[in-house]
Write a structure and sequence with these properties.
CATH class: Alpha Beta
CATH superfamily: Vaccinia Virus protein VP39
CATH topology: Rossmann fold
Number of domains: 1
Largest sheet: 7 strands, mixed
Number of helices: 6
Radius of gyration: 19 Å
Number of strands: 9
């Protein structure tokens, strides 16, 4: 005899399995302080840790308000959302993974963010960079590790003149790839490293 409860049990197990693939990121400060946003478990997705994010945004505190940001390799969108929470003027999120970009869009709706304040592009960052008609005051360059992505990204940012003079760029890499070429007018402002990765903040001289 068919037991209808078996179907309910199966559905509950399936729901539990789905929910277990979802984590969250936390906005540390600003207008959405303490807000948690869902993040799906996507291969290669590596949200910046709260500790690193807190250090970074302590560095950026005097520079955030009114800035136009680019969150390249956006992943969870955590850096762009943190900047917007702290009253950045806008953030462009570029993320190749369709599921991750859909989650960023959903989180934008949750926070009542719309274009042009928040723009989500489900595209390859290298295809998008030549199309930008604006410069950015703040760029987050935090690609997946061990895929050789940082050098071509920085090269194209410089080639297409996307970092405004006086603008800042945050670069996070694994230690093995922490020696990358930079334009002569990008000067180191701050840096830290852990056993696994290195993160630095540069300014483009005016």
């Amino acid at each position: 005899m068919h037991n209808p409860n078996n179907h309910n049990i199966s559905m509950k197990r399936q729901a539990k399995k789905i929910s277990s693939t979802q984590g969250s990121i936390r906005i540390i400060a600003g207008q959405w302080r303490g807000r948690k946003l869902p993040v799906l478990d996507v291969e290669g997705l590596r949200p910046t840790t709260d500790r690193t994010k807190e250090t970074l945004f302590n560095w950026l505190a005097p520079y955030i308000v009114g800035r136009h940001c680019l969150d390249a390799f956006a992943g969870s969108g955590g850096l762009g959302f943190e900047a917007l929470s702290r009253h950045a003027a806008s953030s462009v999120f570029v993320e190749l993974d369709k599921t991750a970009s859909q989650t960023i869009r959903q989180n934008c709706r949750t926070l009542a963010l719309s274009e042009p304040q928040a723009v989500v592009l489900n595209k390859n960052i290298h295809d998008v960079l030549p199309t930008f008609k604006q410069q950015f005051d703040l760029i987050f360059a935090d690609p997946p590790f061990n895929q050789g992505l940082i050098e071509p990204l920085l090269s194209k940012i410089a080639e297409y003149d996307l970092l405004a003079k006086g603008g800042l760029i945050y670069i996070e890499t694994e230690l093995a790839n922490a020696a990358y070429p930079l334009p002569a007018d990008w000067q180191l402002v701050k840096q830290r490293q852990t056993k696994q990765f290195c993160y630095r903040l540069f300014v483009r001289e005016e």
